[in-house]
Amino acid sequence: MTTITAPLVGMRHHEGASEKLLTLGFGDPLTLVREPENAYDENAIQVFTLDGTLLGYIAREHASDWAPVFDLEGTPEAHLTFSSSGYPRVEVELGDEEEASPLEEEGDSDAIPES
Fold it and tell me: What pLDDT was estimated at residue 53?
C-alpha cells in the first residue's frame, strides 16, 4: 500500500467549512468527489465530510496528479490528517506499488498552498 497526502485548500470560500474542520479529528474519514466540469480546474477534487459538508479541494498541484489515477482506478477512501504545523491535509491509500506509480509521496510540507 502507498499512502499519499495533499493539502486541503479553499476552506475560506465555503461557508461553514472552517468551523466544521474544528469539529473533526486526525483520521476522520472524508469523501472525495472529482469535478471535471470545474470552470477553474478540470482536475478539481472536492473534499467533503461524511455528513456532506464541503470543506474545500485537494490543492491544484496535487489534483493534477491524483485526478487521472482516480479516473482510472476509482476514488479511494480518504482521511483527514494535519501537517506538523497543523494545516489540514487529505490522506489516501492506494493499492499496490504498480497502481500508485504515477503518484509519489509528497511529504509533510508546511508550505501554505494558494487556494
Answer: 94
